[in-house]
């Protein structure tokens, strides 16, 4: 598919008011995301490795799909169905909690999402999405997509928080950002607050060092977080969900729990990021999908129940760098593909079963003859989720 | 102090509850002992059972090869008088990154460390490529082990192009969907690669696998040695085309894969990609373009030299000499940070009960601890990010105050009896920063509400203050390459 065809098909998204062409074009400039403040935090959960959307929400009635995958990569048609445009998709058994969230209008799946760029490289595709662009050749600025969104919103931006062990490129920019996967024990400093104060003064005295500024910001926010979490007690108490489902002690549950904890602490968190790895299933896909999808589904269910129990608004977008190859390989796995599955969760989800335009799975429909095509730019999904987050 | 790494005198605490093997009635007992490092030189058949195959090694022991190699790397980082050499191994370990926390990969990690990384790091890149492509750690990690004719597994072939050789700058899939359109193809010298090259390279490596006991049909099984094997019947023998070069059908055993490695090793994009990475890693996060170009030139010229990489290293050293120290500050890895403090303070290092390992592994990405094949980041903002900075300071402070039994040291060495705080810290400024930094000591004492002219004779207090001084940003980075050549 060439670029023009891509833009045309993007323009055909299911909702009239989602003007794909315009937003897609804008997404390449720093002014892409309209400024406004959303209701509740805006969170991106990134499935690293390229999640096989076709296995999460499977078109099991499509004979092309059945022919492309061996029996062990398929499952029986079940009652967890999404219908749209006369077609049906079935949630993977391990995604039952996602089906439940969808039934209660807390989640909308969005299929055939991705980059217009034809890359099938993890690291390029992730970087493009994290920088909010469609090509790395001419970058509009040095910002990551979350920094760009945050810098356009009015009011105090606070800090950007990742419930992960590494800072996502999406945070690149001038807003202070933190990456701490697990906050269960808080972020105590060796020697306590008094010693931290001394170290902060040393960092100030060493201000000409290239790392001094970022260390200073980091220490300041760590200190702030620790003060809030310890709340006058002797040590930080582990956080428990207020919902029925407790957070699984795996990714992405750990990171989501950290985000929830900061939301509960009311320290002005507006933008957060959580990574979930393990989706690069070139081999042994059936077992791995069961496990990883179960972790994702349980984590999201726990988070949503927690937010509901606390009466907190939020919007969360689940993205991945690409979907996987339509036809499986001989290792019981799938190689890198193109169109993928996105999901939007939150407190202000419209009553829609499914977003996106299904491109079909006939040979002629496949991108470059091998992959599910992309009909909605990932940046449009983010923009639309931001729009929803601003609804009352 | 002379720091010597002796694996037979370096102990790992092994502690786990007894349990049952999956099959049969066999049980394994409770274990709680300190065991010397014994697997560093182990051959592949010895390591193979640690993958879990045959269920002969108790489950909790299966991570021991990876734990041993991590501890060995840490001890070598302390022991070496030439830290840039360990950093060179570290670069290649990250370049051909494998995740030792995947059981099968971790099982082979000591052999990979010795026979791929350390053995080839000063040698020839083309030979290095083949050593890694045929090692079980990589064959398991990027799944080439299971790749066979029909629908080949593309994982290894793609990362070979993108990460190990040509680099993502040469990935032109967004621009071209037909190999013939890639510039240079008409003369057999494609400037970059597209997915069609990935498909064909994946076919070229089909049949490159591991003696892992797999059933070959009927009663025939592969041996269980963990060694590389080429299986003709799994190889896709028909003609191929990679980077605009034709491969004849039935070229002969391993010829297709080797030809791909030749093409990749000799491609100009590989020289560029590796040179940029090397300059970023060893000289500056902001790699000067002209230095990258000169390194690439040497890389290219030395392609057939058995000591190609050693010569490239020497060129890097020469290039770095011309830059002032403030332009070549690189973040210390967590291991190097700890080693630098241990050596500065002259700590008689002892791994103790091993709590220290858990601490240091949370202060950064440990070797073999990065899950994706792109290798861990090493730029200042990411190494010193919020995820690690607190633990980095904990490491330094805990070593200084001997929290984990790693060794008591003498903070008063090199000072006169009954020295003042000012005198004590003036001595340690030189040790830690290589030059007087009175502004740091003054700030430290002022904020700790200590009179610089008071006398200090309390060892504990002195150790603590010196540990805090080492939490200054200036102790978190260093110039990697030595300015004196041939040292």
3D architecture notes:
The complex is a heterodimer of chains A (392) and B (487). With 392 residues, chain A is an alpha/beta fold. Chain A has one domain (38-190, 242-388): Alkaline Phosphatase, subunit A. Chain A has 12 helices and 11 strands. In chain A, α5 (96-103) runs parallel beside α11, α8 packs antiparallel against α9 (212-230) and α10 packs parallel to α11. Chain A starts with a helix and ends with a helix. Chain B is 43% helix and 9% strand. Chain B is flat and about 85 Å long. The model of chain B has no long low-confidence stretch (mean pLDDT 96). Classes of the chains: A alpha/beta (392), B mainly alpha (487). Chains A and B meet through α6, β7, α8 and α9 of A and α7, α15, α16, α18 and α19 of B.
What are the segments of chain B in which pLDDT stays under 50 over at least 5 consecutive residues? none
CA(first)-CA(last) distance of chain B: 19 Å
Structural class of chain B: mainly alpha
Most residues in contact, chain pair and counts? A-B, 58 and 60 residues
Strands side by side in the biggest sheet of chain A: 7-6-8-1-9-10-5-11
- The CATH architecture of chain A would be 3-Layer(aba) Sandwich
The chain-level structural class of chain A is alpha/beta
Order of helices and strands of chain A: HHEHEHEEHEHHEEHHHEHEEEH
Q: How many β-strands of chain A, per DSSP?
A: 11
State the oligomer.
heterodimer
Number of strands of chain B: 12
Main traits of this protein?
heterodimer; A: 392 residues; alpha/beta; Alkaline Phosphatase, subunit A; eight-stranded mixed β-sheet; three-stranded antiparallel β-sheet; 12 helices; 34% helix; globular; disordered N terminus; B: 487 residues; mainly alpha; two-stranded antiparallel sheet; two-stranded antiparallel ribbon; 12 strands; 43% helix; flat
Strand and helix map with partners:
The complex is a heterodimer of chains A (392) and B (487).
Chain A: H1 3-10, H2 20-26, E1 42-47, H3 53-56, E2 57-58, H4 63-68, E3 81-84, E4 87-91, H5 96-103, E5 107-114, H6 122-131, H7 145-152, E6 160-162, E7 177-179, H8 192-205, H9 212-230, H10 253-264, E8 271-276, H11 285-309, E9 315-320, E10 340-346, E11 376-377, H12 378-389
Parallel strand pairs in A: 1-8, 1-9, 5-11, 6-7, 6-8
Antiparallel strand pairs in A: 2-4, 3-4, 5-10, 9-10
Chain B: E1 11-16, E2 19-20, E3 27-28, E4 31-36, H1 44-47, H2 64-79, H3 83-95, H4 103-120, H5 125-133, H6 136-141, H7 155-164, H8 195-204, E5 208-212, E6 215-217, E7 220-221, E8 224-230, E9 240-242, E10 245-247, H9 255-266, H10 268-282, H11 289-301, H12 308-321, E11 330-331, H13 334-345, H14 355-361, H15 380-383, H16 389-401, H17 421-433, H18 438-447, H19 459-469, E12 477-478
Antiparallel strand pairs in B: 1-4, 2-3, 5-8, 6-7, 9-10, 11-12
